[in-house]
C-alpha cells in the first residue's frame, strides 16, 4: 500500500517508516525539520530511510494548508500515519503557539486531506499525557480525560475530539494511539534517557524531579512500532463495539488505544539501568515536581491486546542497554 508518514524524521516516525518499507510498502515521509532539537539528528534518521527505493521525503510543515492539500491530491495515499507534532510537555509552557500551529492546525490539515481523498484509515499519535491529573491507575481508555495539566496534553485530547468529529460526520476511519513514555535508539535529546546518559558519561549531575518519586510506563520503541503496524490493519467500522465509541446510536468508525508496557518503573530504577549500561555512577540533583508533570503513568492495555493480540513486554534492562549502545555509537559519529 501507499502510506503517508508525517514526522518521518522524528523518533517514532523514522522507526515506523522503516518498518513499513521493510514490509514492502511505499512510503512518503513528511517532516518540516524544525530546530526544536538538533536538526543533525533528524537528518541522520532520514539517512536510515533514503536507501529504500520505495521511500520519498517531502519537507513540509503539516500546518501548510495548501501544501498538504496538494500533496494528498497528487499522491492519493491509501493510509496515513500522522506522527508529526510539537513534542514536549515543558516546552509547551514556554512556547504555546508552536503547539497550536503544529498540533491543532496540523491535525486539521491532515484530517481534511484524508476526508477529501478517501483515505482508508488515519492512525494518529495521541499521548498518555491526556490522562493528566487522573488519580486512578492503571489508566484506561474508558477513563474521563478532562483535566490536562499541560497545553501539550490539551492539544492531544483536542486531536482525539477532532478525529471523532471527522469519523462521525464523514465516515473517516480514525484510530488514536496514546503512547506511554517511548524510549530506545534514535530517541529525542530532550527526553530522560538521552539527558541522563549524556550527563552520566560526562560526569555531570542529572536532574531528578519530584525527588525521584516518579513512575513511568517506559515503552520500548520496537513495541510501539509493532503496535502501530498491527493497529493500522484494524480499520474501525461504524458497527464495531471494541474500544472507545461515540455515545450516539450511529457509532463512528473511531477508536482510541493505549500503547504502554503495562509495568510502571520507578525513576530511580531507570537511572540504575543506565548506570549499569554505562558503567558509571550518576550524580543526582534532587528537585521538586516540574509544572506540567505527573507522578505516575500506567497503561491498561487490555483493549489493545483484545484487538491485535499483542502486549508490549520489552524489559527495561534490554531497552536501556540498546539505547546506551546506540547513543555511544551516534556520539562517536558512527551514523554520519
TrEMBL record:
<protein>
    <submittedName>
        <fullName>NAD-dependent epimerase</fullName>
    </submittedName>
</protein>
<keyword id="KW-0520">NAD</keyword>
<feature type="domain" description="NAD-dependent epimerase/dehydratase">
    <location>
        <begin position="4"/>
        <end position="232"/>
    </location>
</feature>
<dbReference type="InterPro" id="IPR036291">
    <property type="entry name" value="NAD(P)-bd_dom_sf"/>
</dbReference>
<dbReference type="Pfam" id="PF01370">
    <property type="entry name" value="Epimerase"/>
</dbReference>
<dbReference type="InterPro" id="IPR001509">
    <property type="entry name" value="Epimerase_deHydtase"/>
</dbReference>
Amino acid at each position: 500500500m501507499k502510506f503517508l508518514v508525517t514526522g518521518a524524521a522524528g523518533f517514532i516516525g523514522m522507526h515506523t517508516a522503516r518498518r513499513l518499507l521493510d514490509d514492502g510498502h511505499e512510503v512518503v515521509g513528511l517532516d518540516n525539520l524544525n530546530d526544536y532539537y538538533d536538526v543533525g539528528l533528524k537528518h541522520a534518521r532520514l539517512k536510515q530511510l533514503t536507501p529504500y527505493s520505495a521511500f520519498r521525503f517531502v519537507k513540509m510543515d503539516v500546518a501548510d494548508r495548501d501544501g498538504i492539500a496538494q500533496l494528498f491530491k497528487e499522491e492519493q495515499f491509501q493510509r496515513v500515519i500522522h506522527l508529526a507534532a510539537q513534542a514536549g510537555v515543558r516546552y509547551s509552557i514556554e512556547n504555546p503557539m508552536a503547539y497550536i500551529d503544529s498540533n491543532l492546525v496540523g491535525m486539521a490539515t491532515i484530517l481534511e486531506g484524508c476526508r477529501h481523498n478517501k483515505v482508508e484509515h488515519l492512525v494518529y499519535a495521541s499521548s498518555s499525557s491526556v490522562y493528566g491529573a487522573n488519580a486512578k491507575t492503571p489508566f484506561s481508555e474508558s477513563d474521563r480525560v478532562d483535566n490536562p495539566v499541560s497545553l501539550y496534553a490539551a492539544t492531544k485530547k483536542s486531536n482525539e475530539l477532532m478525529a471523532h468529529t471527522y469519523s462521525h460526520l464523514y465516515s473517516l476511519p480514525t484510530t488514536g494511539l496514546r503512547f506511554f513514555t517511548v524510549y530506545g535508539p534514535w530517541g529525542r535529546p530532550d527526553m530522560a534517557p538521552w539527558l541522563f546518559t549524556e550527563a552520566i558519561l560526562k560526569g555531570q549531575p542529572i536532574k531528578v524531579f519530584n525527588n525521584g518519586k516518579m513512575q513511568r510506563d517506559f515503552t520500548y520503541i520496537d513495541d510501539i512500532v509493532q503496535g502501530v503496524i498491527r493497529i493500522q490493519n484494524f480499520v474501525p467500522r461504524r458497527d464495531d463495539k471494541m474500544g472507545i465509541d461515540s455515545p450516539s446510536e450511529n457509532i463512528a468508525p473511531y477508536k482510541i488505544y493505549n500503547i504502554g508496557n503495562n509495568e510502571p518503573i520507578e525513576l530511580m530504577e531507570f537511572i540504575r539501568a543506565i548506570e549499569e549500561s554505562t558503567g558509571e555512577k550518576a550524580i543526582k540533583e534532587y528537585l521538586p515536581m516540574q509544572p506540567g508533570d505527573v507522578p505516575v503513568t500506567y497503561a491498561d492495555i487490555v483493549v489493545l491486546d483484545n484487538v491485535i493480540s499483542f502486549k508490549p513486554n520489552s524489559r527495561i534492562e534490554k531497552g536501556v542497554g540498546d539505547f546506551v549502545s546506540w547513543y555511544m555509537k551516534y556520539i562517536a559519529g558512527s551514523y554520519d
